[in-house]
Amino acid sequence: MVKFTDIKGFVFDLDGVITDTSRYHAQAWGQLADKLGVEYPGLGDAVKGISRMDALEMILKKGGLAGNYSAAEKEALAAEKNANYVQLIQNMSAKDILPGMADFLADLKAKGYGISLASASKNAPTILAKIGLSDYFTKAVDPATLQYGKPDPEIFVKAAQLLDLMPAQCIGLEDAAAGIAGINAAGETSVGIGDAELLHDAAINFTETSQVTLANIEKAMND
Ligand code: G6P
Ligand code: MG
């Protein structure tokens, strides 16, 4: 069992952890699903943490359309979703940082913890710049270099490597079930943020980002 004192670094998901962009992903995918005539209850939760192309495949499969599009047509559909999404994030600013997360990052930095980003989103650098948190995330896994998407542990293993740490020395923070699975498979301590039922595999669960503090994590690890 990992002790709090073993922890040297924190690996962050972005969408739904640092800022509430998951609702924009849900909205943009919803627009595309409507256009394709695909009904997908729970679409917003299903695409959390899932790469752009994998999310598209999920929607096509749900609508029984998996074999209907060429690779080029799928690229065009994914690009269309991204264009919708980019519109939605255009006016983001520091006000869109989720409660407590700016203080949490400042506290980690002040206390000398390593900080890295494990977001599947190719829009992550743009979003971090818009909300004014780029300086915390000089160490970020480039999703374009990944072979596998979440729930594969690859992104979380790489995020620990960027910090020169062993996975066991890292805590991973996620709002998606696929992300929690990846953190656990990487051998890191998982912190789930959101619905405890959805994130039942997380080692530690917080309902709200405002509860994410070093003191609360230490308490949870010592319980
Ligand atoms: C995050 C989000 C997913 C999104 C993925 C890719 O993991 O939770 O919903 O599909 O990033 O984002 P992108 O901005 O590259 O399309
Ligand atoms: Mg997320």
From TrEMBL:
It comes from the Bacteria. GO terms for molecular function: beta-phosphoglucomutase activity. Keywords: Isomerase. It comes from Loigolactobacillus zhaoyuanensis. Its EC number is 5.4.2.6. InterPro entries: B-phosphoglucomutase_hydrolase, Beta-PGM, HAD-like_sf, HAD-like_SPP, HAD-SF_hydro_IA, HAD_sf, PGP-like_dom2. Belongs to the HAD-like hydrolase superfamily. CbbY/CbbZ/Gph/YieH family. This is Beta-phosphoglucomutase.
